[in-house]
Here is the input.
Amino acid sequence: MAASGTGDHPTRPVEHNGRVDQSAVDGLIELLDLERIEVNIFRGTSPDEDRQRVYGGQVAGQALVAASRTVEDRFHVHSLHAYFLRGGDPRVPIVYEVARIRDGRTYSTRRVEAIQHGRPIFHLSASFGLPEGGFDHQFPMPEGLPEPESLPDFRTRMEPYREVIGAWLDRPRPLDLRYCEDSPWERREKLPPYQNVWMRANGSLPDDPVLHICILTYASDMSLLDTSLAPHGESFAAGDVFMASLDHAMWFHRPFRSDEWLLYAQDTPSASDGRGLARGLVYTREGDLVASVMQEGVIRKLREANEGEGDR
Here is the structure.
């Protein structure tokens, strides 16, 4: 992965409400650029935002960066499996300790533990393999969806709620997400058990393929668990539902760029025992299936006013 946000950028500018938000994307690149403390130990920080706990996609993306920096460049990550153990504290750095589990001729495996205040908050296992030919097939991309340019961006979509959202609505965002259907956090009636979201980095990225994978990992935690609320007419935005990721798995199938439009086709096979299961398939605009995602998380009505604080 590139050491910083420098490097050659594609010539296509990305506009957001009439202006390029490259600064927000550069901030995301910097967020994923970990400090190496020792051979297998790295340190990451959180953005200066008013958050109760660290965004899960940030920890997953940073952990994958740490794992990738201990593997030879010729090996490409093809899967990750992670557990969210405790809510992260956004006020202090996160230490990532990498264990080199195996280095074989074709595959390498890494285990990463994210630590804060002397306790693990996140655990990730990642597998890296050498590219090779072989059988090739995929599920087809959903048909009949609107083009991303025809859909409103986040700021435009949420403008009617400005009085509730406040200044946070105008904050530059490193990712541009555009919903093809009514999203679960906007509506309180029961919706179909699926949603489709176009997404891309809201600016240009260097050509480093590891960076593109880590940014997709960062983005994959957005909107996915929300899908499991859709059939129940509930919304996290209403403030009476507690949601938290428990585990997260990804498989990477084909090359892609995270600064080009990707379709995140999501559905929810099941919800039970206070947990919701959601899965997603990520396609390029041309219809290539580039990644698969599975996630289970806590979804339940708030038990107490401080339900979102402390351990689950």
Observations:
- Residues 1-19 have pLDDT under 50 and may be disordered.
- The CA atoms of residues 4 and 263 lie 27 Å apart.
- The first strand starts at residue 15 and ends at 16.
- The chain has one domain: 15-130+151-301.
